[in-house]
């Protein structure tokens, strides 16, 4: 593995040539910046104009500048063109991942703006790639790179120290979040679970005052970032709190404090991933029937290839239904975009998927999804649209549906606030091995 940070990326990206009728991008320079520009180049004094008694310089933008609407897209096109010139082929299902065969082994590049993460079986291949990137983009300042088995990338610590496993850690992020939270916890204070059985209830109490409302909104956003990366175990709680950020009440605040206390108790937890077979994808999909105050159901889904959850879905269903079987059907439909995309993505990476397994614990739902159009029945049009889409994917061979006992259904964790032994069991399989 090798991670890289390309400095001054936008400034190294030229603005595109203007087409007919297109306007130049003009920047208005005011205040101290006018004097700085004159100090750097006295000829700028000839271009100073006065507006309301203040000096102003108007300049034409020649390079992408951070903050411009089109700057990120221009940089992306720049980097993509460079990689394609170098022989990389982009994954059609993720435009920020590219691959190239070197010495009969795949060199894979992932990037987010100017942060690059590269992998290959041979270290020298990565060194050669780094040299090329530095020659291309290191003119103003040298490209920085990290070698070895531990990398800081996009707020995460990616640890490849254990063979066949990747650990995603965010302890520093958690520590900063806890230090900023207005409620302080004692060192030995413990919270066993992130939410109580009242999580899905709307709750009571007065609306939060403006200052506490802003704190609530800010920390739910921080927790959402955490839950999508290293702490999938808090996903169900964060999902519900995120639906309350527009008008949180005192009950919602208490739920946030409980979640933060749980984070304090488990701040060393991280996500451990490994794959038994890169050609076998396993999806666990479940639904809790009519658990919301408006009697809508809740979908949960977890995807794994071995140890730990690679993806997790937890969301309120948009459609009211009249049975747990129909709730399960809607849940499968909710997860289907991710299920199909994951297969296409992996195959584009060079791993033909032999099995794309969808596990459910509701046998009636499985019968509906596998019996084809003969089971259409008298359901509503909205339900039939979802039903036929799922059955078509089964008939096309894009997924196979198998029964999984409820006690082994990982996705049950994502549908409601579990407690006790069941919570600990599913948290362990979703988060993977803990040091």
Structural commentary:
The chain is an alpha+beta fold and 435 residues long. It has helices at residues 32-40, 71-85, 123-137, 171-180, 210-227, 235-242, 250-265, 324-348, 363-370, 381-395, 420-431; strands spanning 2-5, 26-30, 49-51, 54-60, 89-90, 97-102, 105-112, 115-119, 144-147, 150-153, 156-159, 166-169, 271-275, 280-288, 298-304, 306-307, 311-316, 355-360, 400-403. The strands form four sheets. It has a six-stranded antiparallel β-sheet, covered by helices on one side. It has a five-stranded antiparallel β-sheet with strand order 10-11-12-13-16. A five-stranded mixed β-sheet has the order 17-15-14-18-19. A hairpin with a 6-residue loop joins β5 (89-90) and β6 (97-102). The protein is globular. It starts with a strand and ends with a helix. The relative contact order is 0.10. The mean pLDDT is 94.
Distance between the termini: 22 Å
Number of helices: 11
Total beta-strand segments = 19
Shape: globular
Q: Biggest β-sheet, characterized?
A: 6 strands, antiparallel
Strand content: 15-25%
Order of helices and strands: EEHEEHEEEEHEEEEHHHHEEEEEHEHHEH
What is the strand arrangement across the widest sheet?
5-6-7-8-1-9
Rg over alpha carbons: 26 Å
Mean pLDDT value: 94
Would you tell me the structural class of the helices and strands? alpha+beta
In helices, the fraction of residues equals: 25-40%
Spans of at least 5 consecutive residues whose pLDDT stays below 50 are: none
């Amino acid at each position: 593995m090798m991670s890289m940070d390309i400095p001054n990326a936008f400034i190294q990206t030229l603005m595109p040539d203007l087409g007919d009728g297109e306007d130049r991008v003009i920047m208005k320079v005011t205040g101290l910046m006018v004097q700085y520009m004159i100090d750097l180049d006295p000829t700028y004094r000839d271009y100073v104009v006065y507006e309301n008694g203040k000096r102003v310089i108007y300049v034409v933008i020649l390079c992408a500048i951070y903050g411009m609407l089109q700057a990120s897209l221009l940089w992306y096109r720049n980097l993509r063109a460079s990689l394609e010139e170098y022989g990389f082929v982009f994954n059609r299902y993720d435009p920020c991942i590219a691959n190239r065969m070197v010495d009969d082994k795949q060199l894979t590049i992932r990037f987010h703006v100017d942060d690059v993460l590269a992998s290959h079986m041979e270290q020298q291949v990565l060194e050669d790639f780094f040299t090329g990137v530095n020659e291309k983009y290191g003119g103003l300042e040298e490209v920085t790179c990290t070698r070895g088995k531990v990398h800081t990338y996009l707020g995460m610590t990616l640890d490849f120290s254990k063979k066949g496993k990747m650990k995603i850690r965010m302890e520093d992020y958690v520590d900063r979040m806890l230090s900023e939270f207005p409620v302080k916890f004692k060192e030995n204070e413990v919270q066993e679970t992130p939410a109580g059985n009242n999580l899905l209830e709307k709750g009571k109490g007065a609306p939060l005052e403006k200052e506490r409302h802003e704190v609530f909104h800010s920390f739910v956003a921080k927790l959402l970032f955490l839950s999508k990366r290293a702490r999938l175990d808090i996903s169900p709680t964060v999902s519900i709190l995120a639906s309350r950020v527009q008008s949180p009440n005192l009950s919602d605040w208490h739920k946030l404090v409980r979640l933060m206390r749980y984070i304090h108790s488990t701040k060393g937890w991280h996500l451990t991933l490994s794959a038994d077979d890169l050609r076998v994808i396993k999806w666990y999909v479940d639904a809790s029937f009519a658990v919301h105050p408006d009697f809508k159901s809740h979908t949960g889904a977890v995807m794994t290839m071995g140890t730990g959850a690679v993806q997790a879905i937890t969301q309120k269903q948009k459609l009211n239904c009249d049975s747990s079987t129909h709730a399960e059907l809607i849940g499968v439909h909710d997860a289907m975009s991710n299920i199909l995309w994951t297969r296409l993505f992996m195959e584009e990476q060079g791993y033909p998927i032999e099995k794309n397994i969808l596990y459910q614990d509701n046998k009636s739902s499985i019968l509906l999804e596998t019996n084809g159009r003969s089971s259409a029945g008298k359901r509503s049009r909205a339900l039939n649209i979802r039903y036929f889409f799922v059955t078509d994917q089964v008939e096309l061979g894009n997924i196979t549906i198998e029964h999984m006992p409820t006690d082994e259904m990982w996705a049950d964790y994502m549908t409601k606030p579990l407690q006790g032994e069941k919570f600990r069991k599913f948290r362990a399989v979703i988060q993977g091995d803990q040091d």
